[in-house]
Every structure is written in C-alpha cells, then in structure tokens.
Amino acid sequence: MTATPRRAGRRPGTSQTRQLILDTARRHFAELGYDRTTLRGIATAAEVDVALVSHFFSGKQRLFAEAAALPYDPAVVLSRLLAGPREEIGRRLADQVLDLIEAPASRGRLIALIRAAASEEGAAQLIRERINRELLVPLAAGLGSPDAPLRAALTGSQVVGLVMARHIVGIDPLPGTGREQLAAAVAPTLQRYLTGPLDDV
Amino acid sequence: MTATPRRAGRRPGTSQTRQLILDTARRHFAELGYDRTTLRGIATAAEVDVALVSHFFSGKQRLFAEAAALPYDPAVVLSRLLAGPREEIGRRLADQVLDLIEAPASRGRLIALIRAAASEEGAAQLIRERINRELLVPLAAGLGSPDAPLRAALTGSQVVGLVMARHIVGIDPLPGTGREQLAAAVAPTLQRYLTGPLDDV
DNA sequence: TACCCAATTCAATGGGTGTTGAATTCTTGC
DNA sequence: GCAAGAATTCAACACCCATTGAATTGGGTA
To answer: PANTHER family annotated for this entry (chains A, B) (predicted)?
Structure first.
C-alpha cells in the first residue's frame, strides 16, 4: 500500500489546490496551535509537496495570517448587536457567540485565533490589534458611555474565557452543556458588563 | 567582550544551580510558552551548559511539570473562600485571584499554566485534571447545590478569561486598570455564578 | 588522606524545521 | 499551435532542537 509518488508538473484540470491547502491549514492551526503546526504536516494532509505551500502563501507567517482571518464579518455582528433593545444586548451577544462556536466553519478559526493569541507573542499582537480595531472600538463607540472601553474589554474577557473553558481546556461540564442553558447563564454577565453598574454594591 | 568559557567540572561552593535553572525555566515558560521555550535558551540565560538542564530534570517535559506546579495551595484558597459569608464569596474570589496574578512569584506560573493549557494538548489534559481535582470538585462540594459543577466551571471561565484578557492578550484598558476597580467589576459575576440564579430573567 | 559521588562541561548524534532554486507538466491567451 | 506563465514536485540547504556518553572538577565522608 505504498502511496504512488506523483510526478512533477502541473496536474490536469482546474486547480483548487490553494483553497484545499488553506482549509487544511486552518484545521491544523486550530487543532495544534501555531508552533506545533508544520508546513510539512499540512502538505502531507493535503497530499501536496511542502514547497507548494510556501509557494502559494510565501511562508508560514503569511499562511497563518490568511488562515486566521476573523471567521465572521465584524460589521454584521456589531449591527445585529446594537440593533435591538439595549436591555437584551447581553443575550443577543451570547447567542451570536454560541452560533459562531457551534458552526463548524467558524469554530476552527475561532479556536485557532485564541490558541495563537495565547501562545505566540507576534500573533497575540496581530490579534489584539484586529480585535481592538474591528470589534472593541466600534462596540465601545456604539455604547457611548465614558467607561465604554473598559466595558467592552470586560465583555471580551468573558467571551474568551467561555470559549477557552468550553472548547480548548474542556472544563467539565461545559463542553456538554446545552446551548440554551449556557446562553441563559452567561447573558446576564455580558448584559451587566455592557450596560449595568460596574461598581460592587 | 567574549564570555570566558568555563572549564568543565564542579564549581566551588555549595550549588544552588538546580533552583536557578528552575526559576529561569519558569520565566521562560511564562514568557514564551512551552514550545518556544528551549532548553538551550534556559541554559544560556542561567549561564550553564544545556546538558545540565537535562541532567537535573530529565528532559523538557519533566522540567515543565515541575516548573508549572500550581503557584498556590488549593486547600488554603478554598478554605478562605468558603470561610466567610456566602454573600461575599464572589468578592473574596476576585481578591484572591488578583492577589495571585499581581504577586511576581505566582504570576509567571499562572500565566505559564494558561499558556500551556491553550497550546499543548498534553499539558491541557494534565492541567484540566489538576484543576478539576484540586479546585473545581472541592469547590462544587463546598457549594453543595445540585448544579454546583456547572457553577464552578462558569466561575473558572470568567477567571481564566480575565487573566487571558488582562495579562496574555492584553486587551486595553485591562492591563492598566486598577485592582480595586477590576475586583468590583468582576465580583458580581462570580457571585452570581456561585450562588445566584443561573436562568435568564 | 582516599574514595565515591554530585556537579559541570564538551562533543557528537539524529531528527525535524522553514525556505529556495531548478526542473517538469499543464493551462491559457494569442 | 505556440509561447508564456502557472502549478507542481524534487532535492538540497542551513539552522535549531533535545538527548546522551564521556571526561573533568570539586565536596563530603570515613
């Protein structure tokens, strides 16, 4: 059962190889994190030569940058958030987060992002800026209160913590806890961070 | 300015080298994560030969296991938590977490733990079990309610999220936010996860 | 003082990594 | 139907890594 070595040269038909590599890379980054993901591993899984990966994406860093693009359109998320009644914004956010994390398409990318942010300083910086620019700043602007940046950041902390605990570390019983129950439990926290009082009572 | 190469053989005086290496390793693991930390890097920083590191700790994994021991005594934390009035348990937990993350001694170890949990599956498993056994299970037992495991896990998610956001990713303005303000903001969340209603209202 | 063992360095080994240049095969525009 | 360029592989490079065995020096003890 030796895999037939493929001859050099372009393959017949129209090529979707670039996309295939990108998808494979996303899976690997999500499962292994940046460091443990190797170009060779991606290439093997995509049944392609290593050099092709570097050829298409000009190196590992660029490949990661492309693979780890936000798995959603921040503008859409934000407009949905700010649209409805302000007293239910926490619940709406919880729902959107759970949607994203449960849809297989976005799930991997989200996890890859968080993993990378935790392990690689360079990636952390890139991600911090992206999140700030595309999510937190507009969100804070939408809230309009003077302590809005702090509110946005606190909100982010709970969102990140939830994804970490449920999907990366896997703290029982979170991975098996139903969507509805989770949304209900977390929504009031987000609501208070976004609109409630921030001082202890 | 060439560093004088040291001759082989034991150095004079009583040796604290093992401890020195361990401290250096902690710093490196905390700053770089597991993968990007190299024995060579540790050795160089500790002004010691690489082989000595492996000699003392029998390899990178074991070194990490020793460096990443919990930076506090879970029993103490738990007893302090469960001791006072139940209505202020959220605030007490927030204070203890902030104490740990601000004390230089424990800070690095906490960060290393979280980084490793996010990036290395093996470490994640080890850490998950430790946290479960030493923190969450006793905490749930102390709470005594039927949904206690879920409550403990939610609490953990906010704690982890806070440390991530404030110290690892560095989401503004959290890193510069004062201890008191932060404790006040987060305490009600922890309080509700631990003792409040978990269903949306 | 001798002896044993711990601490320390040196040197070598084997493996894995990302990247690069050249060669081959195909598609596409003229 | 020809030429240019894109897709693909092969092979090699230079680098870094953890681990191991042997050699050297010092401390502690009998």
So the answer is: HTH-TYPE TRANSCRIPTIONAL REGULATOR RUTR, TRANSCRIPTIONAL REGULATORY PROTEIN
**Taking a C-beta distance cutoff of 8 angstroms, is the pair B171, A132 a contact?**
yes
CATH 3.50.50.60 fits B17-67, yes or no: no
Compute the Cα dihedral for A196, A198, A200, A201 and give only its sign.
negative
Residue B152 C-beta-side C-alpha neighbours within 13 Å: 25
Percent of chain A having pLDDT more than 70? 96
Secondary structure of chain B in HEC code, one letter for each residue = CCCCCCCCCCCCCCCCHHHHHHHHHHHHHHHHHHHHCCHHHHHHHCCCCHHHHHHHHCCHHHHHHHHCCCCCCHHHHHHHHHHCCHHHHHHHHHHHHHHHHHCHHHHHHHHHHHHHHHHCHHHHHHHHHHHHHHHHHHHHHHHCCCCHHHHHHHHHHHHHHHHHHHHHCCCCCHHHCCHHHHHHHHHHHHHHHHHCCCCCC
Q: Which tens digits make up the pLDDT trace of B125-141? A: 777 887 888 888 888 88
- Split at pLDDT 50, 70, 90, the class of B198 is confident
Domain map (residue ranges) of chain A:
17-67, 74-195
Q: Nearest chain B residue to A121 by CA: give it.
A: B32
| pTM for the whole structure | 0.82
Is the CATH number of domain B74-195 3.40.50.300?
no
Q: Cβ of A114 and B118 within 8 Å?
A: yes
Distance in angstroms (rounded) separating the CA atoms of residues B82 and B195 = 12
pLDDT band at A3 (very low <50, low <70, confident <90, very high): low
Residue with CA nearest to C25's C1' atom: A9
Q: Do domains A17-67 and A74-195 have the same CATH topology?
A: no
User: A31 vs chain B: nearest CA distance in angstroms?
Assistant: 9
**Which residue is closest to B147 within chain A, CA to CA?**
A173
Q: Are A153 and A136 in contact (CB under 8 A)?
A: yes
User: Which of B153, B161, B171 lies at the smallest CB-CB distance from A173?
Assistant: B153
Q: Which of A33, A91, A200 sits opposite B119 (nearest CB)?
A: A33
Do A128 and B162 lie within an 8 Å CB cutoff?
no
**Contact state of B169 with A200 under an 8 Å Cβ cutoff:** no
Position A181 pLDDT exceeds 60? yes
